[in-house]
Every structure is written in C-alpha cells, then in structure tokens.
Amino acid sequence: MKEKGRIFVWSLFDFANTAFSVIIVTVVFSKYFSNYVAYGNHSLWGIAVSISMIAAALLSPPLGAIADFSRNRKRFLLLFTLISIICTALMFFVKQGDVLLGFTLFVLANIGFEGGLVFYDAFLPNITEKKNYGRVSGYGFAMGYLGALAILLIAMAVLPSSTSPNYYFYVRLMFAIAALFFLIFAAPIFLFIKEPESGEYTRVSLLKKGMSRSAHTFKSIFIKKEYPAIARFLIAFFIYNDAIITIIAFAAIFMSNVLKMSDNEIILFFVVMQSSAILGSVVFGIIADHIGPKNTIGITLVIWIAVVVGAFFVNSVSQFYVVGLLAGVSIGSSQSSSRSLMALLTPKEREAEFFGFYDGLCGKASAIIGPFIYGMISDLSNDRFACLAMGAFFLIGLILLRNVRVDKNNSQIVT
User: Fold this and answer.
1) Cα–Cα dist 110/98, whole Å
2) Which single residue of 105, 167, 209, 357 could bond 65 by disulfide (Cβ 3.0 to 4.6 Å)?
3) What is the fold of 210-415?
4) Angstrom distances, CA of residue 281 to CA of 240, 334, 359
5) Which residue(s) pair with 406 in the sheet?
6) Residue 242 and residue 363: Cα distance in Å, rounded?
7) Model confidence at 410, in pLDDT bands (50, 70, 90)?
8) Where in the chain is the domain with CATH 1.20.1250.20?
9) Which architecture, in CATH terms, is 1-193?
C-alpha cells in the first residue's frame, strides 16, 4: 500500500474511536449514568472517570515499552480496542439501578480506549517519514473531529424526544451504535497496516523496562531537577489539564441539570462546539508561531477562567452558546500549545522518553482529582459551584506556568 493509503487507513482509527469519547465520555452515557442509572449521584461518575484514568496512567509505561520494542503492536492494539468496543456495546444492557454494571463497563471501556492509543500512536513512524510526523499527526486529529461530527449527527437522528415512552431504549441503542461505529472504522488498520519491525523482549523485561524508564524520567525531572523548566511546566499542565478533562466529562450533565437542555439540544451544541474547536486550533496555532506556545497557553487559560465564571452565571441556552464557543476555541488550542511547549523544552535526544511521560503519566493521571472534586461539590451543592471550582485549577496552572522560563525566541530553555 502506498504512503497516502497507509496514512488514510491509520487516521481512520481516529475517526473510529471518537465515537467512544464523544458518545460515552462526553455527551450521552455520562448524563445517562449520572442522572438516570445512579439516581443523580454525580460523584460516582467522577470516581469512575478518575479510576479509569489512574489505571490507564499506571499501564502507560509498560505499554509504552511494549509499543517501542515488541513485534505484537497490532495484537495489543486489537486487544485493547476490542475491550473498549465490547464493553461499550454491553452498556446497552445497563438500566436504572445497574450502578455497578455501568460503573465497571465504563472503567474497562475507558482503559481499553486509553490503552489502545499508546499502540495506535506507535504506528506513526511506520506509515510515513520523520519529516512528516507533525502533518500526519494533524490529519489524525482532523479525522477525529470529522468522526465526532459524524457520530453526533447519527445521535441526532436516532434519539427521540425525552418525553417519548421508549426514550431510554434509544439512549441505550446509541451505545451499541457507537460500538459498531468504532468497530467498522477501526477494522482497516488491522487489515491493511503491516506490523512495525522492532526488537524483541520478553514480557518480563518489557514490564521492567517500562517501569524503569518511567522511574528514570521522573527522577531526572523532579528529583535531580536536571530540567527545571520541564518540571514546572509538567506540574502546571497536570493541574490545568485536570480541569479541562473534568469539564469535558461533566459538560452534558451540566447542560441537562442546569439549563434543562434535551439530548438533541446538547448534541447540536457539541456539533457547534466541535466547529469552534477546529477554528481555535488553526487560529491559535498561528498565534503560537508569533508569540510562542507558553504565552498562547496563558491566553487560553484566561479564556478557560472566563468560561467557568460565565457558566456559573449563565441563565439561558443562548448565553451558554457564547460560553461554549469560548470553551471550544480554548480546548483544541490549549492542548496543541501544551504539546508544542513540551516539544520546545524537551532535549532532542530524550524526546520519546519525555513525551511518554507527558502523554502517559502526566496526561492521563491528571484526570484524577478534578472529576472527583466536581462530583462531590455537585452532590453537596450544585453544578454551577462545581464548574466554578474548576477555575481554581486554571488559575493555579496559570500562576505556575509563569515560572516556566524560555528565552525570547522560544528556542532555548533558560533555567
């Protein structure tokens, strides 16, 4: 298969797995589980998100080592993908009161989703040249946005009015459709992409190597303080990314409980928000080239603070659209600028090692505290105060980010 064909097939996996992240994590199952299955207990949803992300974070080092050195990347990718797809499909059988079943299926499905990404990313060097990594990675993100729009439009067509007598049947049917969507569009990567060539290690040595690598990276950054700018940035990233992930996980619940928006209204909102996210990624990508990624992240964090404050005071759906558009603009730009700043600060000879730590432990594990705090505050007071509390995460992240020092050309660390 030619390079363009390999790139397209590889990026289809991003198109496919967005069905899980959108329908299960963000838009439909989150609200269904929290409001209906768990009888309005929001803290349980927050705990489920936290546990699944902790597990994914702990698995990332050994999985990363397997991805680097094993000849079985496709097998492991298939295993984690099937775990996510099967558990998502089984959510069809989760009904009111089936808290343990819904909780367990989501945790396993999310671990499968996050674990699979480690192996999916590892295919990138096998499908294109090194000089094209950034561009091809961008194609994957673009396909992900298209997949999100596609599954949201399907959801709009499937879900009836909340007053329909069969309403919850169609909600549960949507979980099966998301699983089928994931399965169909993920299949080509297993059929047409060849297994990357790499060295071989035993399973024991892979596990040891993964944990040893992670411990070595942690010690270099935080104990020996060999890279103070990276250490400061990762702490800031850990905090503000926690809030971003929390807002994504609870957005549909907020819209349903505070603004009484129907499923179709929520889905339409996310369609619009996806469009603003694409625009924000492009516009702030240009801005970052002129003022640097650190300053760009600072701007997006200020916008995020405005978002949570606005959400606290919002009284109508039209007002919330303004808040949502700002969030959409910020979500893609804050994540892309964070990755750019990490690339800027990381020494060339340790890119793979440091990015594994950034994406794995700092990226996934950052979703530990925020969802739990949001759920607890929501249960004790309401969603407005829970959302406002996320502003503290953005403010702390912004303050810590100011101590990350780079030179005026954004090309060399100043320690």
Assistant:
1) 18
2) 209
3) Growth Hormone; Chain: A; (1.20.1250)
4) 18, 8, 19
5) 413
6) 8
7) very low
8) 1-193, 210-415
9) Up-down Bundle (1.20)
Which position has the token pair 């619940």? 253
3-class SS at 199?
coil
Vertex 358, ends 105 and 61: CA angle to 5°? 60
Please name which of 302, 382, 288 lies closest in space to residue 333, comparing C-alpha atoms: 288
Question: What number of CA atoms fall less than 13 Å from residue 331's CA on the CB side?
Answer: 25
CA dist 249 and 30 (Å) reads 7
Q: What is the sign of the dihedral through the CA atoms of 108, 109, 114 and 120?
A: positive
Check residues 353 and 5 and name the one with the higher pLDDT: 5
Output the six-digit token pair for 167: 């309403």
> Are 206 and 66 a contacting pair, CB within 8 Å?
yes
Residue 68: band (very low, low, confident or very high) from pLDDT cuts 50, 70, 90? low
Token digits of residue 394: 């953005």
Half-sphere exposure of 65 (CA within 13 A, CB side): 20
Alpha-carbon gap, residue 27 to 186, rounded angstroms: 21
Q: Which tokens sit at 78?
A: 């298939």
pLDDT, averaged across the chain: 86
Which string of DSSP letters, residue by residue, matches 192-205? HSPPPP-----HHH
pLDDT surpassing 90 at residue 337: no
CB 112 within 8 A of CB 20: no
Structure tokens at 31: 């609200």
Write b or e for each residue in 121-159: b if 16 or more Cβ atoms lie within 10 A of its Cβ, otherwise e: bbbbeebbeeeeeeebbebbbebbbbbbbbbbebbeeeb
The average pLDDT across 293-310 equals 94
Neighbours of 400 (CB within 10 A): 18
Is a pLDDT exceeding 70 seen at residue 205? no
Report the pLDDT value the prediction gives residue 415, as an integer from 0 to 100.
44
Sequence letter at residue 221 = I
Nearest residue to 389 via CA among 365, 370, 363: 370
DSSP per-residue string spanning 103-126: HHHHHHHHHHHHHHHHHHHHTHHH
Structure tokens at 46: 């927050």
**Which residue, among 38, 32, 413, has the nearest Cα to 230 in the 3D structure?**
413
What is the helix (H) or strand (E) element at residue 216, kind and residue range?
helix 203-218
Question: Which one is predicted more confidently, 322 or 213?
Answer: 322
- pLDDT at position 328 is 87
Cα(186)–Cα(140) distance, integer angstroms: 13
